[in-house]
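Incident review: delayed structure delivery

Summary: a single-chain prediction request sat in the queue longer than the usual turnaround. Root cause was a stuck worker, restarted by the on-call engineer. No data loss occurred. The affected request and its eventual output are reproduced below so the record is complete for anyone auditing the incident later.

Affected input:
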Amino acid sequence: MEPVPVAGGSQPLTVLCLASYEKGQRFLEEAKRQGCRVLLLTSQSLQHTANFPRESLDDIFYLPDREHEWNLQEMLYAVSHLCRNIQIDRIIPLDDFDLEKAAFLREHLRIPGFGESATRYFRDKLAMRLRAAEHGIAVPEFTATINYQQITRFLDTVRAPWVMKPRLMAGAIGIKKFHDRQEVWNRIHSVGDQQSFFVLERFIPGHIFHVDSIWFEGKMVYAVTSAYGTPPLDVTHSGGIFTTRLL
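Output delivered after worker restart:
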């Protein structure tokens, strides 16, 4: 197969993939099959346990981690050092938790792709809700957990129950449900300096759906809709089996 060219040249596209968790094996294989030069940066804790397709990788690099958390400054130094001898054309995150890392690197190294502001619309629940509301998409009443007056106004005007969600986590991780306003304040005070990293919104019961899509040059080229069995929040709080099915 012919190598994938970069803009203005005929060399294979060099992609640096980020994987703080063991994810993305099929993508790595396909990128190599398409003719890319594939580099992988992953957590050092995965060095002897992860089953990445080594035959599809031109090189693999390990970054020290603490339970899959990376020091962003160390990551920046490491990738910048790598760029002294390798021209990286694209940086590709292989998991939700790697989106911000990729954006951070792209901004500093001026590599094409979503920067930090654009990436927040895919990761930051507060940014998502503000953006959706701006475009007329229905969202539950919500507020940032930053200003005490705004929080008080929200609790005075929006009926319970409420949910407080981490802005940058995935799925139902870290979400708490409340029926009493004092419980909300107790939770806000308990997180200390992390207070601004949450969003508070009205809880709306019902079926939960999600749509996965692929966009290219501003156009949707693929979309599939799925429905959760039991809502993820119920599984997290009450137990059970997490399921989803295609519609």
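Verification: The longest helix spans residues 72-82.
Action items: add queue-age alerting; document worker restart procedure.
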